[in-house]
Amino acid sequence: xxxxxxxxxxxxxxxxxxxxxxxxxxxxxxxxxxxxxxxxxxxxxxxxxxxxxxxxxxxxxxxxxxxxxxxxxxxxxxxxxxxxxxxxxxxxxxxxxxxxxxxxxxxxx
Length: 109
What we know:
Layout (H helix, E strand, L loop, with lengths): L3 E4 L4 E4 L8 H78 L3 H4 L1
Antiparallel strand pairs: 1-2
């Protein structure tokens, strides 16, 4: 018996028969190989899509982190302005009291 290699849809199949794709086993084997190729193609497509999604989400995350940093800096600025305004609000009543209320009677006339 001679072992022969033949091509069945671009695959090398070892067979002792002349037409491996014409037998039920050959058809089944070819169907399995076709399914494996389909599954491999789908896995590759899914992998590529997952990578693209991960890159897009990573970019969005970086943009969100940058925006958070901007907002935190803005918040710090507003807090400093609010602290400064509170200082002035506490000085104004003290100044009014010193100049108008606690002034000697002679200076008011």
